[in-house]
Design goal:
By secondary structure, the protein is mostly beta strands. It is built from 2 helices and 8 strands. The chain has an 8-stranded mixed β-sheet with strand order 2-6-3-5-4-7-1-8. Strand 4 and strand 5 form a beta hairpin. It is globular. The model has no long low-confidence stretch (mean pLDDT 97). Its cofactor is pyruvate.
Length: 116
């Protein structure tokens, strides 16, 4: 049996932009992606702390150490610059493996989305 568990989480980052005219996705600072073990194209869930919105999209790399967190395409209507969001990805694991699996959890500075 397999179950879905949290693989990666970037906890409480500030939205830096919303680009309605982009095809779709969320642009995430490459350093945050690396620290959380999220890869480009990976499906992610976005939870908006400010308004309770929840949505799914996929991750794309933003410039390293830029702090960029931009919701693109239709998702741009679900956030405002400055909103605090949580970015979560999941993995399918065998039940026994899931019992000992440790996810990558990242807690950036909310003010500038930096890792320090």
């Amino acid at each position: 049996m397999q179950i879905q568990v949290v693989k990666s989480k970037i906890h409480r980052v500030s939205v830096t932009g919303a680009d309605l005219n982009y095809i779709g996705s969320i642009t995430i600072d490459e350093a945050l992606m690396e620290a959380s073990n999220i890869i480009e194209g990976e499906k992610v869930h976005i939870v908006n702390i400010n308004n309770g919105e929840r949505l799914e999209t996929y991750a794309i790399k933003g410039p390293r150490n830029s702090g960029e967190i931009t919701l693109n395409g239709p998702a741009a209507r679900k956030v405002h610059r400055g909103d605090i969001i949580i970015i979560i990805s999941y993995a399918l694991l065998d039940f026994e493996e899931a019992k000992t699996f440790k996810p990558w959890l990242v807690f950036p500075n909310e003010k500038d989305n930096s890792l320090t």
